[in-house]
Type IV pilin (Vibrio parahaemolyticus), 51 residues
Amino acid sequence: MISKQKGFNLLEVLISFLLIGVGALGLTKLNVYLEQESDYAIESIEALRLA
């Protein structure tokens, strides 16, 4: 007797949440890095303007 599974099992859902969490963490770290680089660029431009 072959049963056709409908929906997701718990392991698939947990793996999906894990992947989404890792992706969100990566995007958060990228955002922090880009903010730091933006601040550095603004400071460099200001220093060049004052020089």
Observations:
- Residues 2 and 9 are 17 Å apart (CA to CA).
- The radius of gyration is 23 Å.
- The helical segments are 10-50.
- DSSP finds one helix and no strands in the chain.
